[in-house]
């Protein structure tokens, strides 16, 4: 059974850093496209960063480039999101998503599995 469990959210001040974790259960993380998404109140869910399993490429939302870094530890089957220089616009619930691979892996597209999310609030 596929399960994604996020952790690491919290209340932080502007300019702070935070690291989110997503542990994958029931599948091998490295085989799937895997990424972080977020949804702020009243807004649609958006992709923050994602790692493709077709070629290992990563992409980022423009507003987080240079501040956020996505990484994974295959031995721990865990995905991370290091977030630096946080500001109020980063306030949202952050979700981990995974896309089932085909014969050549999976691109960062519509995700098949989702975690329950972890809330990040940036406020002074």
Question: What does this protein look like?
Answer:
This protein has 124 residues and is mainly beta. Helices cover 0% and strands 48% of the residues. Strand 4 (33-39) and strand 5 form a beta hairpin. It is globular, with a radius of gyration of 14 Å.
Give the terminus-to-terminus CA distance. 40 Å
**How is the biggest beta sheet arranged?**
7 strands, mixed
- Our estimate of the beta-strand percent is over 45%
Q: Unreliable segments (pLDDT under 50, ≥5 consecutive)?
A: none
How many strand elements?
A: 11
Helix content: under 10%
- The Cα radius of gyration reads 14 Å
List its salient traits.
124 residues, mainly beta, seven-stranded mixed beta sheet, four-stranded antiparallel beta sheet, 0% helix, 48% strand
Map the helices and strands.
Layout: E1 3-7, E2 10-12, E3 18-25, E4 33-39, E5 46-51, E6 58-60, E7 68-73, E8 78-83, E9 92-99, E10 113-114, E11 118-122
Parallel strand pairs: 2-11
Antiparallel strand pairs: 1-3, 3-8, 4-5, 4-9, 5-6, 7-8, 9-10, 9-11
Describe, in short, the structure shown.
This protein has about 120 residues and is mostly beta strands.
């Amino acid at each position: 059974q596929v399960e994604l469990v996020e952790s690491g959210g919290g209340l932080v001040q502007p300019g702070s850093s935070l690291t989110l974790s997503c542990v994958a259960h029931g599948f091998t993380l490295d085989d799937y496209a895997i990424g972080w998404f977020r949804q702020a109140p009243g807004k649609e869910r958006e992709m923050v960063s994602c790692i493709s399993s077709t070629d290992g490429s990563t992409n980022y939302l423009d507003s987080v480039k240079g501040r956020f870094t996505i990484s994974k530890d295959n031995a721990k089957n865990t995905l991370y999101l290091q977030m630096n220089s946080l500001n109020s616009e980063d306030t949202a619930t952050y979700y981990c998503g995974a896309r089932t691979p085909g014969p050549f892996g999976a691109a960062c597209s519509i995700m098949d599995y989702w975690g329950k999310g972890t809330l990040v609030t940036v406020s002074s």
